[in-house]
Design a protein that fits this description.
124 residues; alpha+beta; 2 domains; four-stranded antiparallel beta sheet; two-stranded antiparallel ribbon; POP5 homolog, ribonuclease P/MRP subunit; ribonuclease P activity; Rnp2-like_sf; tRNA processing
Amino acid sequence: MSFVLISYFLCPVKYLNAYTGIVLLRCRKDFYRLLWSALPFVTYLENRNQRYSCFFNTLHVGGTIRTCQKFLVQYNRKQLLLLLHNCTSEEERQSIQKSLLSCSLTEVEEHFHSGDEEDCVETD
């Protein structure tokens, strides 16, 4: 069985942010190790006969969509704080501070379609 079939039937993409490169995949608890071990072998994604090179790093494995959402909010805050320390201008600093203040779980929940609590795997 190919990875494409595995991802289609068992691991729907619950969240994708092309800007940050974050992808949240949902799979059954029984299959998370299979997915986790297969992700390093994915070297490209294909869409409309175009290949896009990629790689996946697992950032978090959570038991529910909600715990993955909470992790994602904390992870994004940490990334913004790292950017804040490396700012070169006051304009950049204000922009990042505004992003930090607006970062909340309710905004993240808007990106998710379902409110049910199921297994998920977050990758970057």
